[in-house]
Amino acid sequence: QVSLDGPRLLWAGALVAAMGSETEKHCTVLIYYDKGVPPTSDDLGKRLENKKDSVKAEALEELVLLMINGEAYPKLLMSIIKFVVASSDHRVKKLLMIYWEVVDKCKENGDLKEEMILVCNALRNDLMHSNEYVRGSTLRLLCKMKYYRILEPLKEAVLRNLSHRHSYVRRNAVMCVYSIVKSFGLDVMPEAPEDIEQLLLVEGDLSTKRNAFLMLLNCDQDRAIKYVLSMQDQVSTMGDIFQLSVLELVRKVCRSSPANKGRLLRIVFDLAASSSTAVSYDCASTLVSLSTSPIAIHQATSAYVTLLTEQSDNNVKLIVLDRLQEVQKHHRQVMEGMVMDIFRALSCPSLDVRKKVMDICLGSLVSPRNIKDVVALLKKEVIKTLGYEAQGVEGNLEYRRLLIRALHACTGQYSEQAQGVMFLLMDFLTESDQTTAAEVIMFLRELIANYANLRIPILQRLSETITDIQQSRVLRGCLWLFGEYAEETELIESVVENLVAALKPFPLVAEESKSEGKKSSDAAKEEAKADGKKPTPVAAKVTTKTVVLADGTYATQNVYEKGASDETAAADGSKDGKKKSQLRSLVIGGDFLLSAMVGVSLTKLVLKKQGLAPGLKNEVLLVLVNMYKLVKGHACGGERCDSALRLTQCIRLMVGNCGSPLADSHLAASELMKAEWASTQGRTQLAKVLELASQNSEWALGTEAEVEEKSVGPDECIVFRQLRERKGGGNVGASMEDDDDFRVARGASIASQAAADGALFAERLAKVQQMTGLADPVYVEAFLQVHSFDLVLELLMINRTTETLQNVLVELSTQGDLKLVDRPTGVTLAPGQQVMVHASIKVASTETGIIFGYVTYEKKSAADKECTVLNELHVDILDYIERAWIGELAFRTMWSEFEWENKININTSISEVGAFLEHIMRNTNMSIVGRSYKKGSEKKDQKKGKLTAEDVQDMLKEAVGIKTLIETSSFVAVNLYAKSIFGEDALANISIEKLPDGKLTGSVRIRSRTQGIALSLGDRITIVQRGVQGGKQK
Q1: Angle ∠(93,95,100) on CA atoms, nearest 5
Q2: Of 834, 844, 837, nearest to 812 (Cα)?
Q3: d(CA 153, CA 881)
Q4: Model confidence over 386-443: pLDDT tens digits?
Q5: Are 652 and 644 spatial neighbours (Cβ–Cβ below 8 Å)?
Q6: Considering Cα of 1004, then 1010, then 1011, then 1013, what sign does the dihedral take?
């Protein structure tokens, strides 16, 4: 039940009244014309009575344009019949056809005007005209006529034109007959199907034949089927427009009468190899929808693949890929053999097309039978991205990242294939692009963890390239792998030597200390020049920035930028034949996390191999002490810094390992640390991480695509397919029609449709907003409907006075990235009258827009216009935000790149962390980062991209770590992600702390590439975070 009160009751009444009292007015011509001050009827009448055809044509053209744009000249109808109809000028004839089309043919009471009898006579003469163009144009005009009293005396003349010598006349005559039958039924022209069939048998013009067949298809299917079956062998030689009509017949008939399905599908098989792309696409769609046979699906897939590889338009490719994705869900076995053909579409430079190809081919279609070919092709594509020609191509870097992720997904479960690509991918570790290098190290981490036979060659290669790696994150990944998996004696020695060599020359001294106590660099240089000494080197620049870790917490990261001292040192090093590594630069520059990782890895390796040379052990201890001093003396560090404490533990272990006596407390701490490192806890945690990553992978191999589950109620029909008639090979889809008939018989479909209509009506009423007061002369209500990039604003205006209001006009303006396309038209309102007007608005970006304005009107008793200001109408940002999935690595990359941040402090009445998190996610359509939620995402009754309460609860249940934090901890940090319909990324980090008194505190940080979405999403969270109202969440 829907309670209607106040403004909503008025809007509902207006909607019902508009639907009930609407009269059919057919508008077939719409031409814009700036009419200015329209001429009078007398002026136009004098020009129409002129003897010159050119003057008549100009007057008639102006009259037609004025009438199309709302001006009415009823008195001129008789003048045109008297003075214009008899003209034989071709231009006048053309304009006259348009005039008959737009002129009002009925009186105010709905009866046909008497003048139309004379018009019928003129039209009959044109139907018998010697010029075939006049005949054809008249027939086209009659196709748009919806008045039977005009068409009735012309039926005989129309049928006579079916046998005209010119194809243009016959073609339009067929369409005229079809239009009459379609509008008024077959009873008005019972002989039409037979005449059309006879024409079809002898017709040679392709367009005419197509029109005739369409007429039979819609008016007499039996005749159409009979004709197609009689011409079965010749259909493939006919034109594409006729073949498309035949395919339309096949789709209609195979569902209603399966008896002819086999013979008709044979025609579709013959047409699938057509040279016409439209026919080929339609054949493939028909085969997929009507048959489940592997042969039919293979034929359809082949047609799709041909279109995919031969068409150059990216839009066509994306449409075909969407169709292939649908086929993949139900026919994986058939699609598996065509993976390599679909991969040929990777030659397209569009990243969207390439991503779509990967989504289809990888996952369920990759098997042991084709994995070798798939990996070889992807490897070849990776090599192409390294070529000189590909370097300048837009999107080459993103494509390379895509290929690396694809190789990771393909070879993660096939070690023999991984051996062929791992060394190729390891070359990307030295890339300056952090995303690419990080993706490679994650791939190597998985190989090392899962395949013991690959560990030694991978780790050996990593130890050789450690000096060339530029990214701190990648270096930390390599160091962790060294410390955890390097166990062979030779490998440990090699790794330790290479790491120590990468950190040389010693000692490790911070650049800031060199210039400490001296003047600024410029003054120092000037002073040095004056004294004839060497200028003091400029200190390196270290930038500290905040990053989000995998668990959602914040950490500081120091970015090292070379200074003049580095350039001088590099020059000196090049003279000495030595080059400083990036690892050393990062450590000296103040990367504390990397320093701790270097210390832990070196200490682990030394403890694993007891027989290391004493000199090497001493160098390792020197490195640890040097790094401890760097961290301790840094402005952002200190003795209590995490990295300093970690390095202290490493130094304690190294000292104890060398045989030096330790205090009891230090000895116990050393033994505890040794036990922790000797355990397999790190590998166990890594296995869990890899398992979670495989579950959330965008291409999980061997997994079936999610197919929508259909639930059948206990009162539904039971269909025994084995007992059905097998003639024509009816499939399951056809058998389900029995159940539909039963549902219709008991009224179930009507009831469900009524319930759906009621729910839609209630949803619309909930969004109605009052723009003016009930006591204002003009009451205005607004309903804003969102259609992707367009907004349709429906405005209900009601005259609340006892006077007639003239020129009632709503003037609108917008704020934000909104642009008015169509403004509301002015109307005249009688006392108590209500009118609905519309405005179209274009949306350019995800930003909270505001629509405001005023309504003006004129009264007869007032000399000036009156005005009423409208309330502001806010566009909800949630209509543009859709649920989306993203990995943790991509999230952190975006977080570091995005410039705009909006911080919102948490101020809510909700006392439970889980309830608050669920409330925010549901009201922002944001999903938890690092997990994919494909299950149930395509519900039939769910709006695209919208999160429901059930979806949010499922997310929190599957995110075991977050669920455990919510239940056991007073502090929770979660990363969320969403995407707008414009392709804008929205990132959020929610840090929630539950205070002892039960209140929640913390903050929500939103980052985006543009300012608009960050501010708008922040405003949305500020509004909805307050909590619940009336026991229900907003």
Answers
A1: 95
A2: 837
A3: 58
A4: 887 777 788 888 888 888 888 888 887 777 888 888 888 888 888 888 888 888 898 8
A5: no
A6: negative
pTM: 0.68
Q: State how far the Cα of 443 lies from the Cα of 355, in Å rounded to an integer.
A: 19
User: What is residue 790's DSSP assignment?
Assistant: E
Q: Which tokens go with 858? A: 């004129």
Two tokens, residue 578: 């030595």
Q: What does the block give as tokens for 235?
A: 């259909």
Q: Is the dihedral of CA 931, 936, 941, 944 positive or negative?
A: positive
Q: Between residues 878 and 799, which one has the greater pLDDT?
A: 799
Within 338-433, residue ranges assigned H as helices are 339-343, 351-361, 371-385, 388-391, 396-411, 415-426
Angle between helices 221-230 and 261-271 (to 10 degrees): 60
C-alpha pair distances (Å), 334 with each of 365, 458, 703: 10, 38, 16
Q: Tokens 């039979």 appear where?
A: 216
Amino acid sitting at position 616 = L
- Can you tell me which residue has the tokens 């201890």? 621
Gap between the Cα atoms of 214 and 174, Å rounded? 9
Q: Which pairing describes strands 790-799 and 834-843: parallel, antiparallel, or unpaired? A: antiparallel
Q: Residue 702 phi/psi, 5° resolution?
A: 80, 5
Cα–Cα–Cα angle for 1000, 1002, 1007, rounded to 5 degrees: 135
Radius of gyration of the chain (CA): 39
Distance CA 759, CA 533 (A): 86
The residue ranking higher by pLDDT, 690 or 450, is: 450
CA distance 770 to 533: 80
Question: For the chain, how many helices (H) and strands (E)?
Answer: 45, 20
Phi/psi at 641 (nearest 5 deg)?
A: -65, 145
Tokens 């490719």 belong to residue: 317
**470: closest CA among 547, 553, 562, 392?**
562
212 torsion bin: left (phi>0), alpha (psi -120 to 50), beta (else): alpha
Higher per-residue pLDDT: 583 or 517? 583
For residue 39, give every residue at least 6 positions away whose Cβ sits within 8 Å of its Cβ, in sequence order, or none.
62, 66
Helix (H) / strand (E) containing 855: strand 850-859
Long-range contacts of 994-1001 (CB under 8 A, 24+ apart): 994/913, 994/970, 995/970, 998/911, 999/911, 1000/906, 1000/908, 1000/910, 1000/911, 1000/913, 1000/916, 1001/905, 1001/906
Q: Going by C-beta distance under 8 Å and a sequence separation of 6 or more, which residues neighbour residue 754?
A: none
- DSSP 3-state helix, strand, coil percentages of the chain (rounded to 5)? 55, 10, 30
3-state secondary structure of 1003: strand
C-beta of residue 321 within 8 angstroms of C-beta of residue 356: yes
Running DSSP on this structure, what letter comes out for residue 709?
A: -
Q: With bands split at pLDDT 50, 70 and 90, how would you rate the model's confidence at 320?
A: very high
1033: left (phi over 0), alpha (psi -120 to 50) or beta: beta
Residue with tokens 């006879």: 198
Quote the CA–CA distance of 208 and 174 in Å, as a whole number: 7
Assign 3-class secondary structure to 183-235.
Answer: HHCHHHCCCHHHHHHHHHHHCCCHHHHHHHHHHHHHHCHHHHHHHHHHCHHHH
Tokens of 716: 């539904």
Contact assessment for residue 1006 and residue 1012, using Cβ atoms and an 8 Å cutoff: no
CA pair distance 659, 55, nearest whole angstrom? 116
The strand pair at 1028-1029 and 1000-1008 is best described as unpaired
Comparing CA positions, the residue from 124, 131, 128 lying closest to residue 88 is: 131
Residue 381 is encoded by which pair of tokens? 């594509």
CA distance 860 to 857: 10
